Amino acid sequence: MGEPLITSERVPGPQFKIRPPLRGLGALERPRLEDALAAAADAHRLTLVTAPAGYGKSTLLGDWVRKSDLPCAWLSLDRFDTQPTRLFQGVVGAIQAAAGPFPLPGTEAVMALDQSLAHDRAASYDLLLGALEHLTEPIVLVIDDVQLAGPELASGIVGVLAASAPPALRLVLSGRGHPSIQLERLRYGEGLGEIGAAELAFTRDEVSRFADSLGQGAKIDAGSLWTLTGGWPVAVHASLSALTEARNVAGGITKTLPAQPPLGDYIAEEVLGQFDPSLVDFVLRATSCDWLGRRLAIELHGRPDGGILLETCLRHGLFIEEHAYRGGESMYRWHSLFAAQCRRILERRDPLLADRLHRVAARYYQDTDVSECVARALQAHAPRLAVLSLGEHWLEFLLRNGAPALEQVCRDLPHPWNDDPEMLMIGSVCRAIDGDVPAASELTRRALARTSVLDDARRRKLDRCRALFEPLPTSRRIDLRNPDADGRSKVDAATEDYPATSSGLFQLAQAEFRLHRVGDQAAVLLQSPAGASKHLGKMEVCAEAELALAFAAGGDLAAAEDHATRALERADGLGGGSQDQMAAAWLARGIVFYWRDELKGARAHLAKAQRLGSTSSLGPVSAVYRVLVDCATGDQAHLAESSAALESFHDQGRYGVSWEAFYTIARAKIAEAEGDLACALTMVRSLGTGGHAPLVDTLLAELLRRGGETGAAELCTKALIDRDRNRYLDTSMSLTEALLAHGNGDDARVHERIEHAVHRAEPQTILRSFTERREELAELLIQHAVWGTTHESFVAARMARHTQGNPHLRTRSYWTLTDREREVLAYMRSVMTAAEIAEALFISVNTVKTHERSIYRKLGAAGRRDALKTAAERGIV
User: Distance (Å, rounded) from C-alpha 314 to C-alpha 286?
Assistant: First the structure.
């Protein structure tokens, strides 16, 4: 017989479309993803693998298909597969190619199918579904690049299989964006397997292994490369390639990573080149800012459909994410590397348009986000816009970003704007905050010498700034604890001799502790307005509340509780809604109660703080602490509430970005509390190994330690060595360090760190850090008591509390000892005398001795050592 004729009705597809792609040279094997994909395909009839270009989707799927024990059909789509006939032919051909080598019962019906799509499409679809129902063993159909099938994907054979295929067919769809098929019924019904960009991104370990595979492992800092690229695999590869080329040109060894990986051509060809020119034009305009909302998108696009096009970009997987925003609106964030490369592309194509778009963004943010306004104005070579925004809103910038950042912005302005009187006066304020009075005075002198260049409005603003923030008369930061010879505090002397007003000090203090510093300087600055009890106006009461929060931030829990109570009592006396301004006082009490392990009270106080501070930066802080409280109690209903509250505060406008680290660690704590430690560790990968606010780094170090990532945990603890660690953070971090040392077998380090922790904890009754690590510390505290401590009572109390909290101690002898006897027995593990135990328990020495005799009798022991040995054997201690 001759060769069969090929007609126009049926043209065999090319074989490469039904075979997984070959692995590229140097491609990284990723068993964690292969395992995740296998689990998803085993558990779900439909699995989605979606991520933008360059995340290694095809490589992962090809590797998995070649290693899978199941028959796997493969189909790569192209731009011609928008035709229903061609797509049906490809699907049937792929399934037959996979089923052919496996002569299993039920495959005959599949092999007998005609690949041609009949005029009656429904009939052909029914035939395919009917044939698949005969399968007795599962078969997997992987369809790659589904975005190329276009919007008709849902109404074609792929949509039919997604909705109606029998369980024997496992469907894996891979593409750059959300496929057009309807998925919500599956997602909330029988379930849907999903692997996205977050999972496909390289981990730090994978970056390191990939660099090793290219022979560069010892020549780069894998952590820095992971941070630079966000784990985007193609960006990692491009950075390593650029580094290799730089070494070849330099003729030596360089470890300096490129500031921006050379991805411009890749993005132009592989990403933007796949879309309609009108959408590409929008993307190049809209990426002028990493963050934007619909209104800014419309202004940048210059057309009313800008907001709609943001949704289009999201649907097509164009490196953009949607985030919740207050009031029901949304904010969108571009992948920073993608946005930066798009800006470079636009600057090459049309530099005048690029500058104009930056000016549009600067004007948009001029009165709402000074940080973004300044960045965009300088990018547009329009420094006057930056100066106008800074002059009007510099205090907001100060509170959000800190004095060093504000001072640096003023310095970075091009000449002559860096010598502008307003900018010089702002620099003077920054120097005053840091206690550098000579420099502050010099900047003030220079500013006053140039006021002639200002118009009347700007001159008035400068005068107000000068009146509020006259530098304090010390050459260093004020020491609250050391009064002068007359018994006056340094701040009293400063405010007596220099015209620094209460409101000015109040604002300076807010700038201090809202930057997550230890709070001492904030407490100093607040002493004057808070201490003016003879006036008792709202400013003084608010300052008292802020002072309580400053002490809480500084670790002085006793002072924080005292000032918070006084502020709340005074606010009650003022009436007129003054309690509504007491968010800081309630937050201070919530922090105090949390670290003292009084969780019920902590939750009540934090809920009040969150409600009152919902429109300020205190709301998110309250939400984070509420998460910590509910994670500690384990109450799932409360945890769901605090999780929802956390989400409601996330990304509230542009300033939400500054809370990203707090939000991330809080979400990770929620995952850990729900029993998913692996998920928690995945969430915190973006935080690296520290360098954030001290509270974030403290929580991060302990989470990494619990997750077994001891190396990263140790790096995180070192990141805080040279930074301020208040009492409760120092206690917590010291216990983490002790447990890390225990894992390394360094007993001397263990006891040194535990002793340091109890030394810091006892004066302020900091208990949460010990309770949180109860199980792991139980034996170590016993050993530490034997090793020797100057805080015997505190250590013994912790041992007693741990004994009460351990459910596994309910042994056959448990009922024979009363609660007080078990408490005394726990103290007996230390070297404390009966008198010292009595003092710790607030009972008499005779009562202690009575309990000891009862313990000996019930345990059949001759003395303390014998009693402890018997108790240990029976599981009582």
Answer: 13
Please determine, for residue 277, whether its predicted confidence score (pLDDT) is greater than 50: yes
| Kind plus residue range of the DSSP H or E element containing 788 | none
CATH superfamily of the domain spanning 15-200: P-loop containing nucleotide triphosphate hydrolases (3.40.50.300)
- Rounded to whole angstroms, the Cα distance separating 653 from 643 reads 19
pLDDT (tens digit per residue) in 19-38: 888 877 678 889 999 999 99
Are 469 and 500 in contact by the 8 Å Cβ rule? The answer is yes
User: If we measure between CA atoms, which residue out of 260, 250, 254, 255 comes closest to residue 230?
Assistant: 260
User: Rounded distance, CA 48 to CA 171, Å?
Assistant: 9
Q: In the sheet that 72-76 helps form, which strands lie side by side, from edge to edge?
A: 72-76, 139-144, 169-175, 46-50, 193-195
SS3 671: helix
Residues in the chain: 877
Q: With b meaning 16 or more CB within 10 Å and e meaning fewer, what string describes 748-775?
A: eebbbbbbbbbbbbbebebbbbbebbee
Q: Is the dihedral of CA 642, 647, 648, 651 positive or negative?
A: positive
Cα–Cα distance measured from residue 574 to residue 221, given in angstroms and rounded to the nearest whole number: 58
Q: What angle do CA 564, 569, 574 make, to 5 degrees?
A: 120
What is the structure's pLDDT at 450? 86
Q: What is the DSSP letter of 680?
A: H
Which DSSP string corresponds to 210-246? HHHHTT-GGGS-HHHHHHHHTT-HHHHHHHHHHHHHH
Q: What is the pLDDT of residue 494?
A: 35
Task: State the Cα–Cα distance between residues 306 and 343, nearest whole angstrom.
Answer: 18
Q: What is the pLDDT of residues 165-192, one digit of tens each?
A: 898 899 999 998 888 887 777 777 778 8
Q: Which fold has domain 783-877?
A: Arc Repressor Mutant, subunit A (1.10.10)
**pLDDT digit string, tens, across residues 530-567:** 444 444 455 567 777 877 887 888 888 988 888 888 88
Q: Are 51 and 197 in contact (CB under 8 A)?
A: yes
Question: Angle at the Cα of 628 (from 625 to 630), degrees rounded to 5?
Answer: 110
User: Where do the domains of the chain lie?
Assistant: 15-200, 204-262, 783-877
Give tens-digit pLDDT for 832-841.
677 877 777 7
